[in-house]
Amino acid sequence: MKILVALKRVADPANHNKVKIPASGDRIDTAGLEWQINPFDLYALETALRLTENGKNPKKREGEVVVLTIGPKETETNLRSALATGADRAIRIEAVDEELDGRLVAHALAKIVEEEKPDVVMMGKQVVDSETNMVGQVLAELLDWPMATFAATIQEQPDGLLVEREVDGGVAKVKVTLPAVVTVDLRIVSPTSVRSKHTEAGFKYPYEEVRFAPLPAIMQAKKKPLAIKNLSELTPDLKSTTRYVKYEAPPGRKAGIKVKDVQELVQKLATEAKVI
Amino acid sequence: MAFDESHDLFRATCRRFAEEKIAPFCYEWEEAGEFPRELYRDAARAGILGAGYPEDLGGGGGDPLHALVGIEGLLHGGSSGVVASLCSHGIALPPILKMGSPEQQRRFVPPVLAGEQIAALAITEPGTGSDVASLTTRAVRDGTDYVISGSKLFITSGVRADLVSVLCRTGPDKHGGLTFFVVERGMPGFTVSRALEKTGWWASDTAELSFDEVRVPQANRIGEEGSGFVALMQNFQGERLALAFYGHATAELALQDALAYAKERSAFGRPLTGFQVTRHKLAAMATKVAAARTFNYRLAERVAAGEYLVGEVSMAKNFSAQIANEVCYDAVQIFGGMGFMRETRVERLSRDARLLPIGGGTSEIMNEIIAKSLGL
To answer: Which of B4, B7, B10, B13 to mutate to test the interface with A (most CBs of A within 10 A)?
Structure first.
């Protein structure tokens, strides 16, 4: 199986207090931010690795994982990190963050899919910065491929992927034939959430996270191929159609109050918060 | 040899490991005086323990700079004690790697790098600290074996160590009569006499070890008789450079915490950063951290390239240990009462930093070495 994993870099959520909006409100000041790969996209990478290996022998890749990001040269560090984690090769599409929106990204990805012909395009269910939650869906529409969003488990089957999706009120089971677009949710990295056809039934991964990039893999990652393409060549006629009118920080949280018992809590929820 | 992207990636791996596997439990482990043994296996699985060791011995390849940036990453867990014990092999294995036979290397190194066994280095004794060559733990030849008697003090990872690189006296010559032996857990006569309570590094199990006529086969002697002192002096270079990295990394964490707190905390109607006295204090702290880190990085590159820079390594160790204590002191000062509370990280950092001018050779010994390198 060949899987294309789309990664986006985001400001490190642990350093969100460094995000600044200038008084003009016309942009977010990104100076001094620490960047990392969107956590949900990392889960997609872990999922892709699990789908292309026998869980008992994760060093041997049964298939190919290609990672891709769109952004400036600095994002190559994020791609090297993904290569060290286990991906086979990387593609960077040269672009400036400010000129992108979800639709443009989906169009660029569709072009890459035409060239690469993966069986699955995989990414996080959303990015933790803008939380637009649209690239996967728009891409599936552009490609006219089946999609499964918010995947919590994936089992590879002879004729496609059996996906359990987390939806309001429960879990929806869907089966997608390949090629397909899959976006993943948090629980996809649980020990038994993903099983490829190479991994025996009942196998449990000994961890519940994205695998670490060990030093030998970091050294090998230096030699893995990283191709560079230009957004303007992939999507010459397209521009971002999203216009940001104004940025402002959310109001600071007000101090809470302490209630003495459940009765008072219920009463305040009903009369003051008016939520019940 | 120079720092490149692979060092940034490895530091990030270690930092993520520290933030996920150490930081959430650090307070508990510090209070308990040790951390779960599984952490060694976890660190091995994440490819952390083997940094800088050859791959055919189960290492991760890479170079000595990877091990150093690994310390920076791991300290983000907030506990120098965890890092010191988790990485005690960093001072215990080099004598085996430098002087041990291929067979000894195959026997002792892979289980440690796999996180299955814990390795410690034992030099200091109750009666011998800075004057290291005066040590009295004796290894006396008896047939094809040696019999070791004596005791060793302040041994990091000593309580749980499965193998200990022990420097012993095998001959009368002060420097030329010292030899390394590997003493293994379970050898009759080898016991932990006590776990030690310390000012800082609480999560590190530090011990006094007792050797009561411990019979050790010749196969556990590392190198020729009398080769121990030179090996120790070489080992000190790596240990002192590592401690210099502890210094700037500890100071950097204290600075980060102090910066965040000073922005958030108000006094007299404005944040602490609204006071020039605080801003200047933070500016001075940041300058010290930057100077120490820059010096250490440059020096580490030269040492990794094979230069033997005894004077400079001693300078780096001293300078970093000093600024770490100064920066931590100032960070605690900015936190005020909260900086004196065990729940804050700066409180722990300030205690942990106190080890740095002592461990691996005191500042006074470092100054003697520096003076010697100046031709004095």
So the answer is: B13
**Whether A217 and B48 lie within 8 Å, measured CB to CB:** no
ipTM: 0.79
pLDDT per residue as tens digits for the range B123-175: 999 999 888 889 999 999 999 999 999 999 999 999 999 999 999 999 999 99
- B123: Cβ–Cβ under 8 A, 6 or more apart, which residues? B132, B135, B152, B167, B232
- Cα–Cα distance measured from residue B374 to residue B368, given in angstroms and rounded to the nearest whole number: 10
pTM tops 0.90, yes or no:
no
For residues A148 and A123, give the distance between their C-alpha atoms in angstroms, rounded to a whole number. 11
When scoring A218, A220, A224, A253 by the number of chain B Cβ atoms within 10 A, the one with the most, hence best to mutate, is A218
The reported pLDDT for the residue numbered A242 is 87
Beta-strand ranges (E) seen in chain B are: 119-122, 138-142, 145-156, 163-169, 178-184, 190-195, 206-217, 221-222, 266-267, 270-271
For domain A2-251, give the CATH number.
3.40.50.620
CATH number of B230-373: 1.20.140.10
B77 vs A contacts (CB less than 8 Å): none
CATH code linked to domain B119-226: 2.40.110.10
Which of B13, B48, B61 minimises the CB distance to A219? B61
The architecture (CATH level 2) of B5-113 comes to Orthogonal Bundle (1.10)
The ranges assigned to domains in chain B are: 5-113, 119-226, 230-373
Which amino acid is located at A264 in the chain? E
